[in-house]
């Protein structure tokens, strides 16, 4: 007797027969449709469990040429603002009748490539990405030309074939720097960020433009640092070691500013009194700091709303704006007042 014969694969027709429902009813249950009664759903699920049926969701997506999944590719989920951003996106993606699939690249372009290649196999409807450092327009364009809508957010890949949704970074740091200059301060520094990312250049540009526009001469300094708390600590230690007369700092982010304020205290300096500090992002914890941190506020909900407006246009065969700037606001608190 030959026992090598493979068992026949359970099909959707077998499930329908076992549950005593139509094939279309089984399909509705498998795709989580609300157009099927609870009773029929229960019968189908029991039949699936009894028969051991496995739904090949990849194949189904390929047959329909689409899924309801939107890949949200975030650069660094350890950053508190990324969590705010993810929540803002999630709300508006659900409002489109779609489901977000959140993944983290850890600021690693190779990991971003691997993640995207895997998600392409699920035939996601679109990619919403905060691009990792090293992302090129050629890579983005190849993804778009392979049939996947792409929207870049928070960071711009210049001249890529994908729309981008950005906070007005330059305006934010310009207003922050201008606020400090109007207090008569003459020695300022911009701390944090790295040159591989577009938002660093935009925020630095706003700092420089405010310095250039000021009526009287100002001493200004710039120090790059990783965009984490330790980066802020190291940046302030460096600026204070070489320029002990520094009067104020504009930080690339609130997280950088937290590290800066910690480092100040190690030098027996009082943030807001001895050296004024302004961050960027306006995280929820910033108003709880002592002193409360002044910061440039980016509305994550507005970023999510604008992103999904662009996504809706793409899915409806329309062309959204190439570049959308979302306005910011300067929140003045004790650290700079």
Compact summary:
This is LacI family transcription regulator. The chain has 337 residues and is of the alpha/beta class.
- CATH homology superfamily name of the largest domain: Response regulator
Unreliable sequence segments = none
The number of domains: 3
Strand content: 15-25%
Number of helices: 12
Identify the CATH class of the largest domain.
Alpha Beta
The secondary-structure element order is HHHHEHEHEHEEHEHEHEHEEHEE
Distance between the termini: 89 Å
CATH architecture of the largest domain: 3-Layer(aba) Sandwich
- The whole-angstrom Rg is 26 Å
Estimate the global geometry from the Cα principal axes: elongated
Largest β-sheet summary: 6 strands, parallel
Overall strand count: 12
Write down the overall mean pLDDT: 92
Strand order of the largest sheet: 2-1-3-4-5-11
**Structural class label:** alpha/beta
CATH topology of the largest domain: Rossmann fold
Fraction of helical residues: 40-55%
Please supply descriptive tags for the structure shown above.
337 residues; alpha/beta; 434 Repressor (Amino-terminal Domain); Rossmann fold; 3 domains; 12 strands; 17% strand; elongated
Describe the structure.
- 44% of the residues lie in helices and 17% in strands.
- It is an alpha/beta fold and 337 residues long.
- The chain has a 6-stranded parallel β-sheet, with helices on both faces. It has a 6-stranded mixed β-sheet with strand order 7-6-8-9-10-12, sandwiched between helices.
- α1 (12-19) crosses α3.
- The longest helix is centred in the first third of the chain and has 16 residues, at 80-95.
- The relative contact order is 0.11.
């Amino acid at each position: 007797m030959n026992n090598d014969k493979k068992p026949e694969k359970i099909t959707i027709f077998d499930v329908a027969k076992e549950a005593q429902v139509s094939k279309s009813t089984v399909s509705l249950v498998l795709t989580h449709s609300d157009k099927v009664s609870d009773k029929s759903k229960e019968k189908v699920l029991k039949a699936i469990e009894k028969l051991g049926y496995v739904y090949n969701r990849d194949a189904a997506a390929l047959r329909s040429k689409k899924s309801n999944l939107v890949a949200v590719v975030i650069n660094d989920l350890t950053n508190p603002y990324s969590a705010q951003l993810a929540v803002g996106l999630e709300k508006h993606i659900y409002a489109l009748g779609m489901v977000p699939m959140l993944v983290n690249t850890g600021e690693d372009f190779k990991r971003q490539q691997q993640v995207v290649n895997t998600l392409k196999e699920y035939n996601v409807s679109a990619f919403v990405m905060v691009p990792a450092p090293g992302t090129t327009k050629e890579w983005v364009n190849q993804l778009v030309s392979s049939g996947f809508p792409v929207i870049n957010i928070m960071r711009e890949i210049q001249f890529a074939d994908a729309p981008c949704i950005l906070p007005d970074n330059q305006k934010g740091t310009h207003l922050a720097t201008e606020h400090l200059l109007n207090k008569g301060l003459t020695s300022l520094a911009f701390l944090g960020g790295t040159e591989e990312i577009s938002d660093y250049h935009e925020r630095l540009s706003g700092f420089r433009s405010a310095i250039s526009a000021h009526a009287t001469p100002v001493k200004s300094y710039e120090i790059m640092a990783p965009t984490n708390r330790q980066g802020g600590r190291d940046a302030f230690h460096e600026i204070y070691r070489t320029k002990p007369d520094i009067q104020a700092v504009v930080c690339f982010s609130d997280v950088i500013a937290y590290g800066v304020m910690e480092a100040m205290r190690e030098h027996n300096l009082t943030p807001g009194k001895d050296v004024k500090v302004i961050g960027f992002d306006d995280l929820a914890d910033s108003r709880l700091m002592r002193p409360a941190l002044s910061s440039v506020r980016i509305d994550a909900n507005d970023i999510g709303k604008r992103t999904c407006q662009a996504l809706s246009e793409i899915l409806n065969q329309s062309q959204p704006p190439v570049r959308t700037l979302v306005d910011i606001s300067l929140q003045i608190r004790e650290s700079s007042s």
